[in-house]
């Protein structure tokens, strides 16, 4: 280490200066040797030796952890000392009109520090020389990408951002030092010169919790207490302010007054990541406030306290005063996580699958007319998958399910998935714990009542007051409310009589014996300033869990919407009533201009030059040995004012549902891009920018899955669910085949096994009621039964094999997609006749294709038996 740092001592002639190693809020005028770390990995000031050029750095503490999930690894992992020396830049283009740039470099390594560090600004110089050194303590099992941003400092206006270099620390070899020349613009010969060294540091390794994609690190809890010494009859209120940068709580205040007794049971608490070695900033109340002043005056004489200096589990006096004493105590938080890290199915779903077979096996025996029951390994997993389509999909799904029930196929199904309007049907059905054991006539009749009623009453003064009260309550609970919440309340009034207290977790009692298929609801997580094609992540909701399969992270359904930090539950928020989730699952109002353009032109390619970040791979000298998991060094060039304005206009969504992010605080594993689970769903422009992925966001931004592909099939393609047969019930507007085509294209791009869909041009112009794609040419693919919502033989037949009489021909005229169709996606009310016809059509199309359904089930059983052989 001594040699490594010595190599940075004087690479070019500069005047002598100093090197500042910045622990948060504390500056030491030293250069650190690796040997100056004590056994806890902290700086030992007694061993500090030599001086060097000016700079800043951040040193982190070791976290610890534990986890109970079998698929989650508990690893002991080394930390390293990263030394970064920002040396100089050359030929920087002129950003100001009248002078050269006043350059400085900002360093951002969020996996090591809460703070951004920066060099001093060199005035009016196109070839600035800084020669400043920074230190970071990094975790070797975390993907550490250093962002070096060059700015032009301006006094009046905001500093101009010239470019940012993204450098993956995985390129560095332990114990070696390198001087990198980043070629930022070959034409202007712009370059940034930076030196790097990576060395071991003393102290125990760090224990991390990881599923191979996400990493959880140790957090601690700090308690701060104020105890008064004197009590006077008359005294003014005293307010203490405490701040821990980067903690979950941020800043907290304690107020002492004549009518307030401070209790030791209610100290100010802070949860913070131990490895970031933060400080406690204390602002004391003023000893005496001038009578003429109306503002608070503070005595800020108390120095900032480094939290690693507080003994674990013991009270420590931070300050003593004749008026009060200030105490602090830091303790490690429990090792277990409150989220589930892993890609396997949760225990409850596995138990459900075992119980569901007790219903599926007898049903398959009856449907397939078998002489004996199927064995477990011969029993296919059948799923019913739906698409969205507003009230049209709600209504048609009732008919489809009644048809499946009459064929006894509904009892063969293990999963039922939905999005948009079909989630309204599903959430209604699962209020009844035995719904699939019944004929569904009661549910269909109840839905008819609400589908045919006048909706104008939902906007009456009485309802508006109710909406306001409900939104205010959600805000008091700590939620970030939006128009989507109001839409959920409006849906509640459309589909129910009065307030609906049903919650998603309540549906557990409808599957506790395996008596109904397991419902899965879908949404997508998006990002501001990105189109849905550029960034979307699948989110699934079941009565047991809510999670993102891409990251392998799930929370209990009861905890969705609560606040998490590094996988720990920080603040429990009451579970949302299901109407608010229905608003998210069918958020018709989360559109943007690019989505509208895509509907009419089937491509966003024309706008990509305006809406995508300008990212280029850049050359680096010297070339470093290639590592399997490393990222290319890249250059980001920010857009100009016109580009930013146009991008905002194209990508901003009208409104969006935001829920507290249960991934908050996690870090990406160093090998996350090589993880097979992550790679299956890796399809966004930010997947190779770990600092900008979802774990860094405070909120999830959720929209209707239809804004990407109008399908709920993705949870069924999770290999762990082993789905063998999918009944694809399509209720889309416009092209009936488009969602299936888009699914095929997506699966091909992602390498997800999916059957080949081969339809002739004639079929595409005149779709039949059902198509069977057995996936014979794609080993491992599920058998797919595709049911487009079409009015084909139903025009002449009221039931399979029963022709309509002349007086009944009118009932077969169901105008689904004409310009005057009553079944528009945006229709909110049907007549009784319109409702009944659509239900009957959905039922008929299922019943009329019984042979294809049985063929699909027989094919799946045969394949299961062949695999066993």
Number of DSSP helices? 16
Please give the number of β-strands: 42
Shape: globular
Oligomer: single chain
Helix content: 10-25%
- Considering the protein shown, what is the CATH homologous superfamily of the largest domain? Cytosolic phospholipase A2 catalytic domain
Mean pLDDT: 85
Largest sheet: 12 strands, mixed
- How many domains? 3
Low-pLDDT runs of 5+ residues are 1-70, 258-265, 292-299
Show the helix and strand layout.
Elements: H1 2-6, E1 20-23, E2 26-29, E3 73-77, E4 79-90, E5 103-108, E6 117-118, E7 129-139, E8 145-152, E9 160-168, E10 177-185, E11 190-200, E12 206-210, E13 214-216, E14 219-228, E15 238-244, E16 251-256, E17 268-273, E18 279-285, E19 298-299, E20 305-306, E21 316-320, E22 324-332, E23 340-341, H2 347-367, E24 382-386, H3 390-406, E25 413-418, H4 421-429, H5 441-451, H6 461-476, H7 483-495, E26 518-526, E27 537-541, E28 545-548, E29 553-556, E30 563-565, E31 568-571, H8 578-585, H9 593-601, H10 608-611, E32 614-617, E33 620-621, E34 634-637, H11 641-651, E35 657-660, E36 667-668, H12 676-680, E37 699-703, E38 725-729, H13 738-750, H14 761-765, E39 771-773, E40 783-787, E41 797-799, E42 802-803, H15 832-847, H16 850-868
Parallel strand pairs: 24-25, 24-38, 25-26, 38-40
Antiparallel strand pairs: 1-2, 3-12, 4-7, 4-11, 5-6, 5-8, 8-9, 9-34, 10-11, 10-33, 12-13, 13-36, 14-17, 14-22, 15-16, 15-18, 18-19, 18-20, 21-22, 23-29, 26-27, 26-37, 27-28, 28-29, 30-31, 32-34, 35-37, 39-40, 41-42
């Amino acid at each position: 280490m001594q040699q490594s740092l010595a190599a940075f001592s004087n690479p070019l002639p500069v005047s002598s200066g100093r090197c500042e190693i910045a622990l948060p809020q504390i500056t030491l005028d030293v250069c650190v040797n690796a040997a100056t770390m004590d056994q806890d990995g902290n700086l030992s000031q007694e061993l500090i030796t030599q001086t060097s050029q000016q700079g800043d750095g951040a040193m982190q503490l070791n976290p610890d952890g534990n986890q109970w999930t079998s698929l989650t690894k508990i690893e002991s992992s080394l930390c390293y000392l990263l030394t970064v020396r920002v040396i100089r830049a050359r030929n920087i283009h002129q950003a100001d009109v009248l002078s050269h740039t006043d350059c400085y470099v900002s360093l951002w390594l969020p996996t090591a520090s809460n703070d951004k560090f920066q060099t001093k600004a060199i005035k009016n110089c196109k070839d600035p020389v800084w020669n400043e050194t920074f230190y970071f303590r990094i975790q070797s099992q975390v993907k550490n990408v250093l962002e070096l941003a060059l700015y032009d400092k301006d006094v009046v206006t905001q500093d101009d951002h010239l470019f940012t270099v993204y450098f993956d620390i995985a390129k560095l070899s332990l114990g070696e030092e390198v001087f990198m020349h980043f070629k930022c613009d070959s034409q202007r010969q712009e370059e940034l010169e930076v030196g790097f060294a990576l060395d071991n540091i003393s102290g125990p390794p760090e224990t991390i919790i990881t599923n191979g994609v996400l990493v959880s690190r140790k957090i601690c809890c700090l308690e701060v207490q104020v105890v008064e010494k004197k009590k006077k009859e008359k005294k003014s209120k005293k307010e203490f302010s405490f701040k821990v940068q980067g903690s979950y709580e941020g800043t907290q205040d304690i107020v002492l007054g004549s009518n307030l007794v401070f209790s030791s049971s209610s100290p100010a608490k802070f949860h913070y990541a131990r490895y970031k070695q933060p400080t406690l900033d204390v602002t004391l109340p003023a000893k005496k406030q001038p009578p003429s002043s109306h503002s608070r005056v503070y005595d800020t004489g108390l120095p900032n306290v480094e939290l690693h200096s507080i003994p674990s589990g013991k009270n420590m006096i931070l300050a003593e005063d004749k008026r009060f004493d200030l105490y602090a105590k830091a303790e490690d938080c429990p090792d277990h996580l409150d989220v589930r890290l892993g890609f396997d199915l949760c225990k409850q779903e596995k138990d459900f699958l075992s119980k569901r077979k007790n219903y599926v096996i007898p049903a398959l025996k009856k449907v397939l007319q078998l002489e004996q029951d199927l064995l477990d390994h011969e029993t296919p997993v059948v799923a019913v998958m739906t698409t969205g389509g507003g009230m049209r999909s709600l209504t048609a799904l009732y008919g489809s399910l009644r048809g499946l029930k009459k064929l006894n196929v509904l009892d063969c199904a293990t999963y039922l998935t939905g999005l948009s309007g079909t989630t309204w049907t599903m959430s209604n059905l699962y209020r009844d714990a035995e719904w699939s054991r019944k004929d569904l006539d009661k549910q269909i009749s109840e839905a008819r009542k609400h589908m045919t009623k006048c909706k104008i009453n939902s906007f009456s003064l009485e309802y508006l007051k109710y909406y306001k009260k409900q939104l205010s309550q959600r805000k008091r609970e700590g939620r970030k409310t939006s128009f989507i919440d109001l839409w959920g309340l409006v849906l509640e009034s459309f589909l129910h009589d009065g307030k609906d207290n049903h919650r998603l977790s309540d549906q557990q009692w409808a599957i506790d014996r395996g008596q109904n298929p397991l419902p899965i609801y879908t949404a997508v997580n998006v990002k501001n300033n990105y189109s849905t094609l550029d960034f979307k992540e699948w989110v699934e909701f079941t009565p047991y869990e809510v999670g993102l399969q891409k990251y392998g992270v799930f929370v209990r359904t009861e905890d969705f919407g609560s606040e998490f930090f590094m996988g720990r539950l920080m603040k429990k928020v009451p579970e949302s009533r299901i109407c608010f989730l229905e608003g998210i699952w069918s958020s018709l109002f989360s559109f943007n201009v690019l989505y509208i353009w895509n509907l009419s032109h089937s491509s966003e390619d024309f706008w990509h030059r305006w809406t995508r970040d300008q990212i280029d791979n850049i050359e680096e000298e010297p070339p470093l040995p290639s590592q399997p998991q490393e990222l290319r060094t890249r250059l980001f060039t920010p857009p100009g004012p016109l580009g930013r304005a146009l991008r905002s206009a194209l990508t901003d969504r009208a409104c969006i549902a935001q829920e507290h992010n249960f991934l908050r605080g996690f870090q990406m594993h160093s090998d996350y891009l090589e993880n097979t689970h992550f790679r299956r769903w890796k399809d966004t422009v930010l997947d190779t920018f770990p600092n900008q992925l979802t774990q860094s966001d405070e909120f999830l931004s959720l929209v209707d899955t239809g804004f990407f592909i109008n399908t709920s099939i993705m949870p069924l393609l999770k290999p762990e669910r082993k789905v063998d047969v999918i009944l694809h019930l399509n209720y889309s507007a416009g092209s009936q085949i488009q969602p299936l085509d888009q699914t095929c294209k997506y699966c091909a791009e992602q390498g997800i096994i999916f059957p080949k869909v081969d339809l002739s041009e004639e079929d595409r112009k005149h779709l039949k009621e059902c198509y069977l794609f057995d996936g014979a040419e794609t080993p491992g693919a599920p058998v797919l039964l595709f049911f487009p919502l079409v009015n084909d033989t139903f025009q002449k037949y009221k039931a399979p094999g029963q022709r309509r009489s002349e007086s009944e021909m009118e009932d077969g005229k169901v105008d689904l997609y004409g310009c005057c169709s009553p079944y528009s996606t945006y229709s909110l009310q049907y007549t009784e006749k319109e409702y009944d016809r659509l239900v009957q059509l959905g039922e008929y199309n299922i019943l009329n294709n019984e042979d294809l359904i049985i063929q699909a089930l027989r094919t799946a059983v045969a394949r299961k038996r062949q695999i066993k052989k």
